Amino acid sequence: MSSLVKMSIQGIRSFGPDDKDKQVIKFFNPLTIIQGHNGAGKTTIIECLKYMTTGDFPPGCARGGSFVHDPKIAHETEVKGQIRLQFRDVNGQLVSVQKSMMATQKVKKVDFKTMEGVITRDKHGQRVSLSSRCAEIEREMISLLGVSKAVLTNVIFCHQEDSNWPLSEGKTLKTKFDEIFSATRYIKALEAIRKFKLDQGHTIKEHQTEIKYLKQNKEKAAEIKEQQSQTEGRLAGSKESIRQIRQELQPVEERIDKINAKANEIHQLEKRISSLQSRKTQMERDMQDLRDNLENIFSGSTEQLKRQLSEHQGQVEENEDAVRQLEMRMDQVTREGQRYGRERGDLLVKQGKLQQEATLHQQNIQDRDNLVLRLAQQLGLEGFSSAPFNDRRIARFHECMKQRIDEAVAMATSVKRDYEEQEAAAQKKVDDLRDTKTKLEQTQRLKQDMMNKNKRERREIETELSKVDASTERIASLGADLARKERELQQVEESAHIPQLKEEVLQLQNEKRQLDGQLGQLDAELHQMHLQSSVRTQLEMLRKDKVGKEDSIRKLKQRHQSELTDLMGHFPSKTELVEWLSQKQQEITQSQRRTQKVHQEVSSLEARKKMLTEQLKKREQELDKYEEQLFDVCGSQDFDVEMDELGDHIQKLQDQKGALVGTRHLYTRFISELQKEPSCPLCERRFGDDQEVKELVDFIKQKIARVPTELNTKDQLLRQQQQKYDTMMSLKPIRKQVVDLKDHEVPDIKSKISTINQEIEQKRTQITEGDELFATLSMEEEMAKACKDDIAMIERYRTELRELEKKIAQQSSKLAGSDSGRTIEEVNSAKQDKQLQVDNTAAKLEQKRQQISDLSERINALKMEVNTVAGEKLRLESELQRMKQLEDQKAELVSVYQELQREIKDTQEKLEPLEARLQGLRREKDDITRKKEQAVERAKNKVDQEKSRKNEVAGLDAEIDRYIEQGRDKLLQETEEKLQVLENKVKKAEDEKEKMDTRMQTLRKEVANQKARERELQDNLQLRKREEEVNKIAGEISDLEEELGGLDARSIEQEKRKLVEKQDQLLKEKYVAEGRMRGLEEEIRRYRKELQSDQFKDADVKYRDMMIVLRTTELANADLEKYYKALDRAVMSYHHMKMEEINKIIQELWRNTYRGQDIDTIEIRSAEDTTTAASKNMRRTYNYRVVMVKGETALDMRGRCSAGQKVLASLIIRLALAETFCINCGVLALDEPTTNLDRENIESLAAALMDIVKGRSRQRNFQLLVITHDEEFVDLLVHANFTQHFWRVSKDNDGLSQLVKHDAAALQD
After folding, report:
1. Which of 1279, 962, 1236, 956 is closest to 164 using CA atoms?
2. Cβ(994)–Cβ(329) below 8 Å
3. How many CB atoms lie within 10 A of CB 269?
4. What CA dihedral angle connects 804, 810, 816 and 822, to 10 degrees?
C-alpha cells in the first residue's frame, strides 16, 4: 500500500523562493495534523500534493501563474518554484519525485513555465531516474500510487473549494461518480460492441443480397464460356480455308512480281535512252555557242593546242612575276620612306621638348638666386648679398635655415610642457572635490528610496484600515442580504412543481415505449419483404439486360445508318455487305494501275528537267562568279564607262605628279634668285625692304616643305588607280562571256525548263485526280469494313434478346399471386412516419427533463448565493480582528519616515557649498587649457613658416640638379645631327620609287593583252572536249537501243493481264473467308471481354469468397451478442456491489457523527436512466443523487440541508469512497473539515475520525492528513494519542509561510 513520507516546498504561493525559505514537512502514521490561522498557507500543502500526484493546478489558476510565488512580492522579475515529494509505492519501495516551475513578470501579466520533472527510485540496487522528457510523469505517478486520477482528485486530495462536490448538480455529480467507478471505459466498450454488432447485421444483409447476384453471375459466366468454345471451333475451320487460298495465290503473285520486274527493266532502258538523247542535244548546242564566240578557230591538233596554251601561260606567269617583284620592291621602298618620315617627326618633337627644358633650366637658376637674396635680407643672414651663387654658398644657406627650424621646435616643446603641468594640477583638484560630492549624493538617494518604500507600506496599511472600517457596515448589509436570499430560495422551491413535471416525464416514456414497439413491427414486416425480393431482383436484372441490349442495337444502327444508306441505298445484312466489298476492291485495283502509268511518264519528264536544271545552275554559277569579279573592280558602274574614266584619271594624276616635281625645283630656284637680288622672279618687281623679301622666302619654303607629302599622296593614289586599271584589262574577256550568258544561254535553258514544267503539271493533275478517286474508293471500302463488325454484333444481340425474353417470361410466372398488399417503398414510408412520431415524443421528453434540470439549477444557484453571502460575512468578521495590528505598524512607519527626512536635510546642506567650489575649479582648469592651446599654435606656425622657406629653395635646387645629372644639353645636340641624316635618306627613296613606277605600267599592259589570247585558246580546247563527249554519248544510245529491241513487251503485258484476273478471283475468295474469320474473332473477343468484365471475372471465386465471408460474419455477430450481455451483467453487478458497500459505510459514519434528530441517515441513490434503458439500441447509464432518510421517507439532500449538514455529508461520503476505492493507497487528506459545523458535530466528527484511525491503524501505511484552523478540534484529535507531534503553519515578518513541528504532549498539558 502506498503512503507519503515527506515533502519540501519552495517558491509556491506564500512559501518563499529562496533556499533559506524552503519548508519541509514529514507525514506521520497514522495521523498527521496541520494547524494554522486563515491565510497561513495550510491549503497550499494539499494543492502541492495534488499537483505532484495528478499534475492539476488548484481552482482559479489553470495556467499556473498564481500558483508560483508572486514576482512583485519578491521584488524580482523571475521567481522559480520547486516541490519535492518522497513516498512509498504500492510495493513499499521508496520513490522521490521533483517538479520545478518558473514565473516571469511581464508588462501586463505573469508568464508561467513548467520545467523538467524527474522521478527517482531504487531498482535492483541502482538508482534510476525518469524525466518528463521521456515519459508522462502524471501517468507514472498514478501507477505508483495504485489509484486512479479521479480518486486522487475528488477523494484523497480534494481541494477545499471543491469539497462539497457530492451535493453538486446532477450532471456534475454523475460525471464524477462515473470517473470514480471507472465505469466510463466499460460503458464505452459496451457501446462500441453494440454499434459494431449493428453494423455487422447490416453487413450480413448486404452480403446475403450480394451473394444472390454473384450466383447468377457465376451461372452466366459458365454459359458464356460454352459459347466461346463453340465459336473457337468454327474459327479454326475458317483459318484452314484461308491457308489453302494463300497457297494457291502465292505462285500467281510470284509470277506477277517477275513480270513487273521485267516491265520495270524495259521502262528503265527507255528512260536512260531519253536522258542520253537530251544530254547529246544540249551538248551539241553548247558546241555551236562556242564556235560562234571564237574569232579564231585553231586548225592544228589537240596536242598542239595544249602545247601552245601551256607556252603562252608560261609567258604570262613570267610577266606577272616581274610585276609582283616590282610591287614588292615598291612597297618596301614606300615603307622605308614612311619609316624615315616617322623617325624625322619623332626627332622634331624630341628637339622641341629639349629646347624647352633648356630654357626652363636657366629660369630655375635665376629664380633660386633671387629667392636666396630675398630671404637673406628678410632674415638678416650674412654672406648672401650678391648673385649668382655656387653650390658651396647654397649648401651654407640650407645649414642656416635648418638651425633656425631646430630653435623654433625647441621653443614650442618647452611652452607645451609648462602648460600641461599646470593643467594636471587643476584637474586633480576637480576630481577630489567631485568624489566628495558624489558620496554625499549617493547617501541622499539611498535615504530617499527608503522614504519612498516607507510611503508605499503606509499607503497599503491605510488602504487595509479603510477596508476594515467599511467592514462593520458591510456585515450588517450582508446579514440583510442573507435573509432575503433564504426567503427567495424558499419561494422558488415551493413554486417549482417538480413532482408534477416528473409525472409528465413518466407518461411520455410510456408513450415512447408503445411507439418503439410499433416501429419494431414495421421492421419485421420490411425484413420479410426483403426475403421475398430475390425473384424480383432477378427479374429486374433481366429486364435491365434486355433494355441494355435493345439500347446497344439502337446505338449501333444510329452509328452507321447514314453511312451505309449513302453507300448502298439501304441498311444491309452481313452477306450483302461482303459482296459489296468484293466489287469495290476490283475498282480500287483498276484505279491503281492507271495512276501507276502516269507516274512513269512524270518520272521521265523529271529526269530531263533535272538535267536541264543542272545545266542552268552551272551557267548561273559561272555568271555569278564573273559578275562578282566585275563588281569587285568597278562596283555598280558600267564596265566600259568605268574603264574610260579610270584611264583619264590616271593621266590626270601623272600630270599632277610631274607638276609637283617641277614646282619643287622652280621654288628652289626662286629662293636662290631672291637671296641674290630682292625682286620678284616672275614680274621682276623690286621689294621695298628686306622684311618683304624674308616673308616671301618663308612662304616659299613652306610650300617646298609641303611638296614631299603631296607628292607621296599622289604617288600612292596613282599606284592604286593603275593597279585597278590593270585588273580591269585582265577582266575584258570575262565581260564578253557575261554578256553571252545573260542574253542567250541562260534564257534558252529557262524556256526549256518552263515547257517541261507545264507537261509535268498536266501529268500531276491526272495523278491527283486518280489519287482522289482511289482515296474515295478506299474511304468507302474502309467505312464499309468499319461497319462490318458492328453489323455482326447487331445480329448477335438480336439472338440474345430472344433468349432474355424467354427468361423474363419464366421469372414473371414465378411471381404470380405472391405480391402482398404493400410494396417495400410503402412499408419504408410507414416506418419513416412512425420514426418521426418517436422523434417528436423524444423531443417532448427531453424538453420536460430540461425544464426539471433548469428549475433544479435555479434552486442550486440560489443555495450557492446563500452560502457565498454567509462565507463573505464570516470573512469580514475575521478581518475586524486585524485592525489593532495594522494601526501599530502604521505608527512605527511614521516615526521612521520623520527620521529619514531629517537625515536628508542635513546631507543637502553639505552639498550646496560643494557645487559652487566645483564650478570655480572647472573654470580655472578651462582657462589653463585655452592658454596652452594658443601658445602651442603660435609656436607651431613659426616652425611651419621656417620649414616652408627652406623647402621652397630646396625644390628649385632639386630641379636644377636633375637637369644637369640627366645630360639634357648634350642630348639636344645629338638630336639635331640625326635630323640631317634622315633628310638625305628620304630624298633618295623618292627618286627610286619614280623609276619603278614607270617600269610597272609597261608590264601591266603586256599582261592584259596576253590574258585575252589565253582565254581564246582555252575556248578552243573546250570545243574539242565537247566533240569527244558527243561521239561517246551517241555510241551509248546505239547500244541501249539494240538491248531494248530484244525484249517482247506486248506478250509480257498479255500474260500479266491473265495472271491479275486470276489473282483478283483468289483475293475475292480470301477476303470473304477473312471477313468470316474476323467476325468469329470479334465474337471470341467479345466473349473474352465479357468474361473479363467486373461482372463475370472470377465469378466462381467471388461467389465462394463471399459465402465464406457471410458465414464467418454471422458466427462473429453471434459471439458479439454473447460478449455484450456478459460484460453488461458484470458492470451491473460491480456497480450494485460497490454502491451497497459505500452506503453501508456512509450510514455507519453518519450515525456515529451527526448529533441532530432530523436526519436518520444519508445514502447515495443510483437509478438506471429510463430514457436510455427503454431502447435496446442505447447503452445503459445511471443517474446519481444524495438523499437524506427520516423514517421511511427519502428526500434529495441537495437544496434541503444546511451548510453544516452539507459539509458533514460531503466529508462522510469522501471517507466512504476512500474506504472503498483506496485499497492500494492508505492516504486521505481533509482540508478544514469543521467548516460550518457546530461544536457538538465537531466533537462527534473528531470521535468518528479517531474511530476510523483506530480501525485502520493496524495497516502499516494508513495516513490521515487533517488541516484545520480550529485549535479545539486539534486538541480533540491529539487526546486520542495517535500522534506525538503536529505541524503549525504561520507567517514570518516578511509574510512568508513557515512550518514548525510541535510536541503533542505540550498541547495536552
Report:
1. 1236
2. no
3. 15
4. -40
**Rg for the chain (alpha carbons), in Å?**
67
Please report where in the chains the cell 609582283 appears, as a residue: 324
User: Can you spell out the DSSP letters for 243-303?
Assistant: HHHHHHHHHHHHHHHHHHHHHHHHHHHHHHHHHHHHHHHHHHHHHHHHHHH-SS---S-HH
Question: What pLDDT does residue 897 have?
Answer: 77
Please, are residues 939 and 455 in contact by the beta-carbon 8 Å criterion?
no
Q: 964-989 in b/e burial notation, b at 16+ Cβ within 10 A?
A: eeeebeeebeebeeeeeebeeebeeb
Non-local CB neighbours of 539 within 8 Å, separated by 6+ positions: 808, 811, 812, 815
Mean pLDDT of 536-552: 72
Longest Cα–Cα distance of the chain, Å, equals: 177
Say how many C-beta atoms besides its own lie within 10 A of residue 347's C-beta: 18
Q: Rounded to 5 degrees, what are φ and ψ at 1297? A: -75, 145
149, burial (CB in 10 Å: exposed 0-12, middle 13-18, buried 19+): middle
Model pLDDT, residue 212: 78
DSSP assignments along 520-544, one per residue: HHHHHHHHHHHHTHHHHHHHHHHHH
**Residue 791 and residue 574 in contact, taking contact as beta carbons nearer than 8 Å:** yes
**Residue 1272 pLDDT exceeds 60:** yes
User: Rounded to an integer, what distance in angstroms lies between the CA atom of residue 176 and that of residue 157?
Assistant: 14
Q: Where are the alpha helices (DSSP H) in 569-689?
A: 574-634, 639-676
As beta bridge partners, residue 1194 has: 1189
Task: Read off the C-alpha cell for 498.
Answer: 417538480
Please give the pLDDT value at position 528. Answer: 59
CB atoms within 10 A of CB 873: 18
Omega prior to 30 cis, within 30 of 0: yes
- Please write the tens of the pLDDT for every residue from 496-516: 677 777 777 778 777 877 877
The order of strands in the sheet holding 1193-1196 is 1161-1168, 1182-1190, 1193-1196
Instruction: Tell whether pTM > 0.70.
Output: no
852-886 confidence digits (pLDDT tens): 767 777 776 777 777 777 767 766 666 666 666 67
Instruction: Give 1103: exposed, middle or buried? Use CB within 10 Å, 0-12, 13-18, 19+.
Output: buried
> Cβ-count burial of 512 within 10 angstroms (0-12 exposed, 13-18 middle, 19+ buried)?
buried
- The answer to whether 384 and 393 have CB atoms below 8 angstroms apart is yes
Q: Which residues of 751-775 are buried (b: 16+ CB within 10 A; e: fewer)?
A: ebbeebeeebeebeebbeebeebbe
Determine contact, residues 45/15, Cβ cutoff 8 Å.
Answer: no
